[in-house]
Design a protein that fits this description.
By secondary structure, the protein is mostly helical. The protein contains nine helices and three strands, in the order ααββααβααααα. The radius of gyration is 19 Å and the shape is flat.
Length: 274
Amino acid sequence: MNSTLFGALAIATYAVAAITLIRSLHDTDYPPGEMSGVRRLKTLALGWLAAVLHGIALTGAFETAEGLNLSFLSAMSLVAWVIVAILLLTALAKPVDKLGMVIFPLAALILLLKLSVPESIHTVRNQSWPMTTHIVVSMLAYSFLNIAAFQATLLALQDWRLRSHHTDLLVRSLPPLQTMESLLFQLIAAGFVLLSASLLTGFIFLEDMFAQHLAHKTVLSILAWILFGVLLIGRARYGWRGTIAIRWTLGGFLSLMLAYFGSKMVLEWILNRA
């Protein structure tokens, strides 16, 4: 199987899907947050095609004779694929299509780096079902909260443009502010539940979550969990919204990103350790 060929096709399809979304900003004949049925169907179809090609390109990149390969770019590309899949599934019921303008090019860039940048194989030798469960839940948690971070960024842009009385094509194409905010907290709630499960499975199944090579990841993950938990409590009890919600979301995601990939990049690329 030619992973490079399928990867190149996936990158090209991601680009076409993103361009189609950008062109949809000019659909002024439809209510805010909506696009023509034909164009929306075309965008989702292109997104799914790109995701399938992306998945095929990654097939075989993780299974090695030594164990499961989760090197930095391999893990990044797999998470990017999961984020795209979650976005496309969510788009079937929620108005999250516009996030594809950022997520599709980002997935294409990460896949391009995966295919073009050589890196050492870093394997997970313990492939028992508890470890697999922990890895899968962790990736899902990161993916949901990654989409929430993009949603928060888009919400911040929308709020700023509306406050300054400048409604450009992007702002006019988005759903109402309350809908965007409601969707943000739905994503955060789903991500928080998965992050809780990730930490719980880690403490149950891993020998020592505070071992030297895991301590930084554990501490940063717990910090992210606290930040998202406080945000959800603040939303439920005090009606937190707007700038407060955006800042807490981005702060929590930054901590989680450093936990999942910041430490991994330092270990593999700088310290040259597994």
